[in-house]
Write a structure and sequence with these properties.
This protein is an alpha/beta fold and 197 residues long. It has 8 helices and 8 strands, in the order ββαββαααββααββαα. The strands form 2 sheets. The protein has a 4-stranded mixed sheet. Helix 6 (134-144) runs antiparallel to helix 8 (188-196).
Length: 197
């Protein structure tokens, strides 16, 4: 059965060797009137990058840099969402405050110390995203004063899941403009109302 086949030649690996990794999909140009779902990072198509809460903040930052992202989902050992950590969390003033309050070194801070916990996160339902345009997403990010907006969906059992997210930096690249996200909305209900129109 195998007599028509020959073994392949193999050799030892070099000492300095890495491995191929998929490049992130190239962001295509969009307009404010394009469907919002076209600029969403969809976790059904792109693997979500995660980190446990017990690793150091510096490890999380290195993971972000090596994967060219600015956000990691923080998950437990069952892959349940505990929160998220962004480059803003790491590069902002929170780590400095914790270093002074606790009398620890910056390198000792864990993801759990600086992440935004799940209870403080808000997300846009996928059904609203499917009716929205890119401009609505930009308005949402500006209104909530954030660099990212999470999108929720439901799995086959009807449980809420994180379906994807929007990134201000990715949107800016695709729109060919700068997006300033410093204005904070009074509450998330205002944002939901904006998306409804």
């Amino acid at each position: 059965m195998f007599q028509d086949f020959a073994p392949l030649h193999s050799g030892r690996l070099l000492s300095a060797i890495s491995f191929h990794q998929p490049l992130p999909p190239e962001a295509r140009a969009v307009t404010l009137d394009d469907p919002a779902v076209e600029v969403m990072t969809d976790f059904k198509r792109v693997r979500a990058l995660t980190v446990p809460p017990s690793v150091t903040m510096d490890y999380a930052h290195q993971r972000m840099m090596s994967n060219r992202v600015r956000l990691l989902l923080v998950v437990d050992d069952r892959n349940m969402l505990l929160g998220l950590i962004t480059t803003t969390d790491i590069e902002g003033d929170k780590p400095l405050r914790l270093v002074h309050q606790r009398g620890v070194r910056r390198g000792d801070l864990l993801v759990a110390d600086v992440m935004t916990p799940r209870e403080k996160l808000e997300a846009i339902p996928l059904e609203d995203v499917l009716r929205a345009r890119v401009g609505d997403v930009v308005a949402t990010l500006k209104a909530v004063g954030r660099q990212h907006a999470m999108v929720t969906d439901h799995d086959e059992q009807g449980r809420q899941t994180v379906r994807g997210l929007f990134s201000a930096s990715q949107l800016a690249r695709q729109l060919g403009t700068v997006i300033h996200t410093t204005e904070i909305a009074g509450n998330f209900a205002e944002v939901e109302e904006m998306l409804a129109h």
